[in-house]
Design brief:
- The longest helix has 24 residues.
- This protein is elongated.
- It starts with a helix and ends in a 19-residue tail after the last strand.
- Helix content is 40%, strand content 19%.
- The C terminus is likely disordered.
- It is built from eleven helices and ten strands.
Amino acid sequence: MTQLHERQIRLVHELMYQIKVREVMTAKVVTFPPTATFREIQLCMKEHRFSGTPIVGAGNELLGIVSIDDIISSFDKGHIDDPVAEFMTREVVTIPQNYSTIAASNLFHKYHFGRLPVVEAPGSSKLVGILTFGDILSHLLLTINSIAERFEEQERNLARTMERPIRDTLHFELAPDKFDLAGVASTMVKKRIKALGVPPDIARRVAVICYEAEMNVILHSLGGYMDADIREDMVRIVVTDEGPGIPDINKAMEPGYTTANEKIRALGFGAGMGLCNIKRCADDFSITSSMKTGTVLEATVRLPAPLSPPAAEENLPRETP
């Protein structure tokens, strides 16, 4: 029972990297125009039992948000019957619909909000939904049992014998600031090694390494690429970026150390744990960096042998467009 519980916790962590906000959010959102009064909004909140609502303009453009705290303040200050435009919260933290739920979870943890307005894309103010942490938990609970069953089946098939040597290399181009593509490489590598019968805990370690390496290139570099060399006894991940390099590698390896700017942190990234997580998940790890040529990271995860190739070639993409 304890092992099953631990496996479910690992699955939850993995799912939050993969599930996008658009899959979890509530698309039908109760909104109000800036001309609405606090009393109108308070009566609607009471009737429908929610504690905050976005204020939108033409084209569903997000202008602000009104929370239950704002309603209480309007009673105290005597403007309960005034339009909300003058008093609403205008500096609103949002989350793009293509971001992962782990990014949303980081924002919930950082700001302790009850909800996050979901916008169409990074830099957009068009409202497309609303997200609560409860939405994330409900989605995870609905899917975790079927995921766990698949992992159990995978574990039962680990005894297959290897019929031919395994050697496969997946190549991924990584572009800066392409947050909506974050997780593509890690998902594809994980699918490939799962098809070879790699145990779930090892597959998860490989996926975490790939994801953290992807994010480092996307957040901090001018672009680069990742090669995942899959063999019968190991997965070797090499990530090369075009700079700028890391001034102090020892400092960069310290938990919590980050050079992320405020914009990146506001999006829920840049916690300073990427390199630490990679090293923790790898059996062998090395990193070299130059301020002139960029950074090369190499991480190896050893696999139980022998592994068996898939019974038939799967239609898995071998590289990103």
